[in-house]
Every structure is written in C-alpha cells, then in structure tokens.
Write a structure and sequence with these properties.
The chain has 160 residues and is of the alpha+beta class. It contains five helices and six strands; from the N terminus they run αααβαββαβββ. The relative contact order is 0.13.
C-alpha cells in the first residue's frame, strides 16, 4: 500500500498497469488497493502541477496568511479552523506551531480581492486575534518540482 501511495505521489498519471509492472504485483490487487485508498479518503484526488510562468491561463493572486486565534473552549483549534477553511478563497489551511496558530494559502483574482477577504471575512471572525498577510511574488519550487531554470553566474571572479 505504501509503495503505491509513494508512486502516485511522485506521478499521479501512473495507471494501475504501470504500477503493477513497477512493483511486480498483480494488476487486480493494485486496482483494489487504489479503490480502497480512494474510498477510505487516503487518496483525495489527483492533481497536475502547473508552471504558471509558462502558462497563458489565468494566474490568481496568492497570499500566505498567518492567523492568530483563540481556540474555542472544549473544541480547540478545529472549530475556528473549520470556519476559516470553508471560505472559497482559502486553498490551504494548516495548524502550526510558533507565534501564530493557522497558516493559510488564499487565492483571489487580484490583490484587492485578497485584501477584502482578510478585512471583511477573516479578521472580523470571532476567535481571530490577528493576521499577517504575505503576497506570493514568484514560485521557484512547488511540491518537489523546480519551476524556474537557474541562471548561470555571469560575475567575473576576482583574484588577487
């Protein structure tokens, strides 16, 4: 099971036939395992990683938002996290350690939309004590994939 998950994490386009060939396992067993992983919620979906710099499609504005919250009595952080991640603008929500509690990745059509989300929906929520917003300017690496080619160093070396 672990081997199948690792292969699909590395390349979600692998077919059950490909996986059975790689692992030298029966194809019916591989198919049943994948179905079981999907039904149990271990595998939630399959996704392509897009290099938006090379794509002509719409490029949303993304921001990473640090959120300090007051956990709700008898419900902890889960209650406020659920209220926050249900907003359509929130793409990712993590509980983290450190000086803030939740780390969000938020998307909007433009900077104004993201700022409006923070000001009108996120910050006023009961339990939210503070937010810090960082707009993402450029992606270099995502999910293990390098998105930009490194440029050669054109500086002249100095020797004495």
């Amino acid at each position: 099971m672990k081997e199948i998950i690792e292969l699909l994490e590395e390349n979600a386009r692998l077919t059950p036939e490909d996986i059975s060939r790689i692992l030298k396992k029966d194809i019916a067993t591989v198919k049943k395992t994948i179905e079981k992983l999907e039904k149990s919620g271990v595998i939630l979906g399959y996704k392509a990683i897009i290099n938006e710099e090379k794509s002509k499609s719409f490029k949303p504005v993304r921001a990473v938002i640090e959120v300090q919250v007051t956990p709700k009595r008898n419900q902890g952080f889960d209650y406020i996290a659920e209220r926050i991640y249900k907003f359509s603008e929130v793409v990712t929500c993590f509980l983290v350690s450190g000086t803030y509690d939740l780390l969000l990745i938020v998307e909007g059509d433009n900077i104004h939309d993201v700022a409006q989300f923070v000001a009108e929906k996120l910050a006023p929520l009961e339990g939210v004590r503070g937010t810090v917003t960082h707009f993402l300017l450029k992606k270099y690496k995502q999910d293990g994939f390098v998105l930009t080619k490194g440029k050669e160093n054109h500086r002249q070396s100095i020797s004495l």
